[in-house]
Design a protein that fits this description.
mainly alpha, Regulator of G-protein Signalling 4, domain 2, 12 helices, disordered N terminus, disordered C terminus, RGS_subdomain_2, RGS, RGS_sf
Length: 218
């Protein structure tokens, strides 16, 4: 951390005058090192606090840090209702994606949404030379046998995907991604819609309206 006396020379001048005053007027008073160090410690804490507030410290990697319900808690009931209209609608909104990811973590199946997000990012690669390293990471993380976050794929889909890793295309993971998408849509999504966190987002509506709107979600 930069020395504040170098950034603000006037502080250095003031400090020198204060020291001279104490030496001439009251030589018996000793400077207390621990008190002098307090402003520096406080300044460090303030700078650390500002640093942690920067956006880059809260942009979780899609592979492993998917987010939580903190932002979803501020979602209006009307917005939350839209998540029940379709699974695609839920995933298309960041707050919905974060809320669903948080829910999957409680079921210990967050690898599914992490794989889906990784595939979405993979398809956005702008050049061919980006595909190979990304494809290998996705394959080794989610698809190969005993992968740390292995997703549930049938033998045929896994085999087809494996064969294209050497020369990957933007469509290399399409079949696997579709399989995992359907799995989440048919299995996890209905449970999410009936989960306490999601239902708590709907509490701002009148009971009659809530019952009618929710019935169309299923």
């Amino acid at each position: 951390m930069e020395n504040p006396l170098l950034l603000f020379p006037q502080l250095n001048i003031s400090a020198s005058k204060d020291k001279a005053y104490y030496k001439v007027m009251k030589p018996e008073i000793k400077e207390e090192p621990h008190k002098a160090s307090k402003p520096g410690a406080k300044q460090k804490r303030n700078r650390l606090s500002l640093l942690l507030q920067k956006p880059e410290f809260h942009e979780g990697d899609h592979l492993g840090k998917p987010g939580n319900l903190t932002k979803a808690a501020s979602v209006s009931p009307e917005e939350a209702v839209k998540w029940g209209e379709s699974f695609d609608k839920l995933l298309s909104e960041k707050a919905g994606l974060d809320a669903f990811t948080k829910f999957l973590k409680t079921e210990f199946s967050e690898e599914n949404i992490e794989f889906w997000i990784a595939c979405e990012d993979y398809k956005k690669s702008k050049s061919a030379h980006e595909l190979l390293p990304k494809a290998k990471i996705i394959f080794e993380t989610f698809i190969q046998k005993d992968a740390p976050k292995e997703v549930n794929l049938d033998f045929h889909t896994k085999e087809v995907t494996s064969q294209s890793i050497g020369q990957p295309l933007h469509s290399t993971f399409d079949a696997a991604q579709s399989t995992v998408y359907r799995l989440m849509e048919q299995d996890s999504y209905p449970r999410f819609l009936s989960s306490a966190p999601y239902l708590s987002l709907l509490q701002g509506r009148a009971p009659g309206r809530a019952a009618r709107r929710r019935s169309r979600s299923f």
